Amino acid sequence: MIIQNGLVFTENFTFEPLTVKTKKDRIVKLCAPNTEAGTSFHVPAFASLKATIIPDDATFDASGCLVLPGLTDIHFHGCMGHDFCEGTKEALETIAAFSLSKGVTSICPATMTLPKAELSRICKTAADFAVSQQTTSATADLIGIHMEGPFINAHKKGAQNEAYVQAPSPSLLRDWQEDAKGLIKLVSLAPELTGAIDCIKECHDAFHFSVAHTEADYETAMEAFQKGADHVTHLYNAMPPFTHRAPGVIGAAFDSPGCFVEIICDGVHIAPSAVRAAFRLFGKERMVLISDSMEATGKPDGTYSLGGLSVNVRDNRATLSDGTLAGSVTPLYECMHTAVSMGIPLTDAVRAATINPCRSIGMDNLYGSISPDKKAHFLILDKEDLSIRAVIKNQLLLCFS
Predict the structure, then answer these.
(1) Cα 1 to Cα 57: distance, rounded to the nearest angstrom
(2) Which of the following is catalytic: 292, 315, 373, 385?
(3) 151-169 pLDDT, tens digit each
(4) Closest among 126, 7, 140, 125 to 64, alpha carbons compared
(5) Residue 299 located in a structural domain
(6) What is the pLDDT, as a whole number, of residue 40?
(7) Gyration radius (Cα) of the chain, Å
(8) Using CA atoms, how far apart are residues 284 and 397, in angstroms rounded to an integer?
(9) Residues 194, 266 within the same domain
(10) Residues near 41 by Cβ (< 8 Å), separated by ≥ 6?
(11) Distance between CA 178 and CA 285 in Å, rounded?
(12) pTM for this prediction
């Protein structure tokens, strides 16, 4: 395929007038405008199509549009009435299809705090699903699993089920990774738990560890980062606050240059000023936008479930019966759009939803930017209002009129 007449988001984090050429599922090259042209198939921007497989010599006219890499969500639980932890092919198909329709072309969904056998079953189903995906599947690529539980502090459990909290265990992780056929990329844990630091030290070459659902002070969090942790799960949430005498996890992450930090920018979890402060504090190269969305995403207000707990959804806000926030109901694309509305520069917001999440889980060799030999995944936005005009995944085209 040839994508032309658009402004392409480059690996220099700028928008430039370039032509992109792809073949099957890979990007072949970027070149100056109008130097390449398809001969047999032409698709104008804004065509009213649902999903079409198009030939390699097709030309997509991206006039008036921004051409972004497909987005990558490394922390979310579900959508459209389904949860990743259902551990069924049907749930994964629904979740991956909805993600693609919202411009998220690669996903790393999160587990919850559940029994060992349940997590094993979820990992096995995910591994089978990932192997079964075809280049023309109308679903986001399943590129990883984020183990958000069960190694959490029960006092900061949020919407997790305290009954299944366990101490960090290298042997458990190895068992789950075998079930997942290597798909586990990110493991959230509370570093103050017995065995947590040793687990990080022993396993950091095999997993990315993220400090999460924790009461850790600055010193404990710093030890976790020094032993190999390189990530923070949903910054500000389920952790001690950042104060001038007790900087906690946030201060330790700031003092650890290789550490990525996630942020839920749904307009509910974090105030705009705190979002702007986080981008200023950590820098655009370390910020990762996530949705943390749950099964109610894409559905009307009502009562839903997360990790076996009842969740009430009303007006874009998902809460447990005691008022605790229980994830979000906002897709990643809308979180990126919200970040821009909060004053985050567009290029920084795009970076935080594309290459940064991929780098944070070690998948940036194939995903996250528009570069030769990477996956041919694109999100086409109207350059004026940033609305989605098309999603391109390999040879599959979804257009929005």
Answers:
(1) 5
(2) 292
(3) 999 999 988 999 999 999 9
(4) 7
(5) yes
(6) 47
(7) 20
(8) 30
(9) yes
(10) 54, 55, 57, 58, 59
(11) 32
(12) 0.95
Q: Are residues 155 and 290 in the same domain?
A: yes
19, 20, 30, 31, 42 from 4: Cα distances, Å? 5, 7, 10, 10, 11
Q: Mark whether 57 and 78 lie in a shared domain.
A: no
Residue 306's pLDDT band (cuts 50, 70, 90): confident
Residue 48 has a pLDDT of 53
**Domain with 170 in it: what CATH number?**
3.20.20.140
Tell me the β-bridge partners of 68.
Answer: 379
Task: Say if 365 falls within a structural domain.
Answer: no
Is 292 an active-site residue?
yes
CA-based nearest residue to 119, from 72, 160, 71: 160
In this structure, are 257 and 324 located in the same domain? yes
Regarding whether 143 and 12 lie in a shared domain, the answer is no
pLDDT value at residue 57: 87
Domain that holds residue 280: 71-360
From residue 321, give the alpha-carbon distance in Å to each of 180, 276, 304, 324, 329. Answer: 33, 30, 12, 7, 17
CATH of the domain at 60: 2.30.40.10
For residues 198 and 128, state if they share a domain: yes
Mean pLDDT of the 310-335 span: 91
* Whole-angstrom distance, CA of residue 187 vs CA of residue 334: 25
**Within a domain: 305:** yes
Residues 26, 175, single domain; the answer is no
The answer to whether residues 59 and 35 touch, using CB atoms and an 8 Å cutoff, is no
- Is the peptide bond prior to 150 cis by the omega test (within 30 degrees of 0)? yes
Beta strands in 212-272 (DSSP E): 231-232, 260-264
> Sheet holding 71-73: strands in order across?
71-73, 104-107, 141-142
Token pair listed for 322: 């005691």
Identify the CA nearest to 346 among candidates 383, 377, 379: 383
**What is the total count of domains within the chain?**
2
Q: Which two three-digit tokens encode residue 398?
A: 């979804």
